[in-house]
Amino acid sequence: MNSKATLMNSMRARLTFWYTGVLALVLLLFAFSTYLYLARASRQRTDDSLSDTASSFISSFNSELSDEHQPADEAIREASRNFHFRDRQVIVFDDRRNLVVASDIGEKMPFGNGWFALPEAQPQLASLLDAASRGGRAYATLFDSKNALRVLAVAVPAGQHSYLFVVANPLQEQEKALGQARKAFYVAIPLALLLTSLGGYLLARKSLAPVVTMGERAARIGASNLNERIPVPQNNNELGRLALIFNQLLARLDRSFAQQKRFMADASHELRTPVAVICGESEVALSKKTRDDTEYRESLAIVNDEGQRLTRMVEDLFTLARADAGEYPLVLTDFYLDESMNECVRSVRSLATQKELEISYQQPAKEIPFRGDEPLVRRMVLNLLHNAIKYTPKGGQVRVSVNENRQHCEVTIRDTGPGIPREAQPHIFDRFFRVDKARSRDESLNGSGAGLGLSIAKWVAELHGGGIRLNHSDAGGTTFVITLPVRA
Ligand code: ADP
């Protein structure tokens, strides 16, 4: 049996165990309280009935006493003769605890009619009579549960004397009924537990069956078949939702794997071109025994350019890889955004002049304090500025402005270049995306020309809690807007 099956088995067993355990507790509590209730109700009934008997007997005695004017002892005996006791015995003691009369109820008393004379009955009976003498009446249960007797003693004054009327009721019947109730519980509770644990186990098995199937399918999914999904149970319960969430996770993994694969493929493709140029150029240079200086210089210049492009591309790739891994060592400092933008514009001014472009910077009304990674923020703006210069033809203009409102500040970079084709616009922030691969490789500019500049700019903006958007692009030019949150 594999570990998954063991796990499911133990889960089923644990569910069943807890289910049965809780039920057992509930049933035991129920049985216990029901039994207690039954016992108390039965005792109460017996006590009420003993009290009724005592009252009837006492009133019979009183009427004998008043009607016939006979001595009290005789009246008691007379009352006992007239009174018919089927299942209980009446015993009367005088105030010196001498027996006056004891009725006969045959075999029903556990130790016979004379039980009250038994030595083992004496201590309990004496204390009952004492209690009745003191308080008027008292109840007690005598002997063990098998031969139990419920006894009521009532003190009855009669002239100079006082009598103790005792009514005793054997509890066999009640004990029998309670015994039957106990037996019913002994049988019913284990049976109920057995059936519920069996039912619980089957229920747990049925409910966990989809989990087993889902687990088996999930175990078969790996990097090579991330497009597979686990089955979603029909009904929209917790398991269905779990399966959906798991499938969504798989879809995300699938997408990110595909993205990684594409990134690797694109990166190696992009790296191959400069490497091929370097190899080709050096081979050509070496193919002839002798070459003049100019030829060597030309070849070395090409090798150097491509080497530099390779370095920039590797740097860009490294930045994106660290960004993806969330490992970029961000260094936050306080600086003025407007000042930083001004410096960026200044640093590309000579490039723009070389290309005969006019570049301008419109300063904001007041200084804009900002907290962020200044080199990264500059890199973002420079990427956009290099693109603007790279793609704008001779005689064009590049304008940079910075504006601020209460929530954020905006850096706008506008050029008078040819614009980005409408169908390419949604993809320009994608990695390795270039509209025109040849045009993109302008050696005079920073950036690898591998289509990574805008992806890096977007990442930097988002890293600082802002964003970047292509505001407008047509044949008249392109406008990018960077939005950054202002410092509170
Ligand atoms: P690259 O390194 O190729 O410039 P980017 O990610 O910076 O890569 O830009 C992606 C593509 O978007 C570019 O190849 C270019 O086609 C287009 N692009 C970006 N900025 C401009 C712009 N200012 N004018 C025209 N096209 C642009």
Structural summary, described in words:
This protein has 488 residues and is an alpha+beta fold. 56% of the residues lie in helices and 17% in strands. The chain has ten helices and twelve strands. β11 (467-474) and β12 form a beta hairpin. The radius of gyration is 52 Å and the shape is rod-shaped. The two termini are 62 Å apart. 24% of the residues are buried. The mean pLDDT is 88. The site of adenosine-5'-diphosphate (ADP) has 22 residues, from α8 and α10.
Structural features:
five-stranded antiparallel sheet, five-stranded mixed sheet, alpha+beta, 488 residues, single chain, binds adenosine-5'-diphosphate
A few lines on this structure:
This protein has 488 residues and is of the alpha+beta class. It contains 10 helices and 12 strands. The protein has helices spanning 3-68, 72-82, 122-135, 172-220, 238-287, 293-325, 337-354, 374-391, 437-440, 453-463, and strands at 89-93, 99-102, 137-142, 149-158, 161-170, 333-336, 358-362, 369-372, 397-404, 408-415, 467-474, 477-485.
* Helix-strand sequence: HHEEHEEEHHHEHEEHEEHHEE
Shape, principal axes of CA atoms: rod-shaped
Instruction: Tell me the structural class.
Output: alpha+beta
Which molecules other than protein and nucleic acid are bound?
adenosine-5'-diphosphate
Low-pLDDT segments, ≥5 res: none
Count of helices? Answer: 10
Share in β-strands:
15-25%
Radius of gyration: 52 Å
Count of β-strands: 12
State the helical fraction.
Answer: 55-70%
